Amino acid sequence: MELIIYLGIGAIAGFAAGLFGVGGGLIIVPILYVVFTQMGYDPAVIMHLALGTSLATIIVTSISSLMAHHKNGAVLWNVVKNLAPGLVLGSFLGAGIAGILSGANLQLIIGLFAIWVAYKMFKGANAKVDEAKQLPSTSMQMLAGGGIGIASAIFGIGGGSLTVPYLNKNGVVMQKAVGTSAACGLPIAIAGALGFMFFGAKAQINVPNTLGFVHLYAFIGISIMSFITAKLGAKVAHALSPAMLKKCFACLLTTIGLFFIFKGVSAFF
């Protein structure tokens, strides 16, 4: 029965990822939070489990995504190579920072982040790219990768909502920014998931079917279904208006953001 629930979550997350053109992290984390709460898991570690499991599932979806973008020649591998060291170190470190933060603090941080992403999406930020601009030096790209990695692990995402604007701002056209970001999602997800496993193992949590802060049944169920339904979501997206899709997703993210802010604030009273 438990695995069926996770297959259902994977179906929703994969479809949403394909439909809205984003990684499923911001969809998976709130759903897992609700499911883990209903299962009566320790409230102190529910958010950590949701984030770690989300990053583990992104390993699978990012492989599928980067292969498709690579086939279309949309991945700037030299940029991926420059960002990767920072992404890996930052993501592992971010998992450690998330492990120290309380569940309520994580809820507030993720809630505010979801609303920020919603605002940027609703306003259609970064639609115009100044192609005359150049990416900064290799060392500055590594530093940027570190920042993106830390934030991505704390938010339980593959980093697309951070990497794409960074690349756009530095003159990379949208198609290649998205493709390069998809490739960057893999080192983020691997290092972040390993970090959540490592720091979760040290915390010695008492939740069944887990490896550190990664729930194994949830990882398997979500990965399998999201891989299948992402393609269906992408097909539906082509039949709808991109502007309308962005606005719908922005509304969904605002709801998620407000939900987590409310839960986070409630925990302090």
Describe the protein's architecture and organization.
- This protein has helices spanning 2-20, 25-38, 43-71, 77-100, 103-122, 138-155, 160-169, 174-203, 216-238, 242-266, and strands at 210-211, 214-215.
- The protein contains ten helices and two strands, in the order ααααααααββαα.
- Helix 2 (25-38) packs antiparallel against helix 3 and helix 7 (160-169) runs antiparallel to helix 8 (174-203).
- The protein has one domain.
- A hairpin with a 2-residue loop joins strand 1 and strand 2 (214-215).
- The protein is an all-alpha fold and 269 residues long.
- Helices cover 79% and strands 1% of the residues.
Gist?
The chain has 269 residues and is mainly alpha-helical. It has helices at residues 2-20, 25-38, 43-71, 77-100, 103-122, 138-155, 160-169, 174-203, 216-238, 242-266; strands spanning 210-211, 214-215.
Poorly predicted ranges? none
Query: What is the number of helices?
Result: 10
Number of domain modules:
1
Instruction: Please bin the fraction of helical residues.
Output: over 70%
Strands of the widest sheet, in order across it, are 1-2
Say how many strands there are.
2
Question: N-to-C SSE series?
Answer: HHHHHHHHEEHH
Computed structural class:
mainly alpha
pLDDT averaged over residues: 89
The share of residues in extended strands comes to under 5%
Termini separation: 35 Å
- Roughly how many Å is the radius of gyration? 17 Å
Strand count, sense and barrel status of the largest sheet are: 2 strands, antiparallel
Shape: globular
Transmembrane segments: 6-33, 45-68, 88-119, 140-158, 178-199, 211-232, 244-262
Protein name: Probable membrane transporter protein
InterPro entries: TM_pro_TauE-like
Main location: membrane
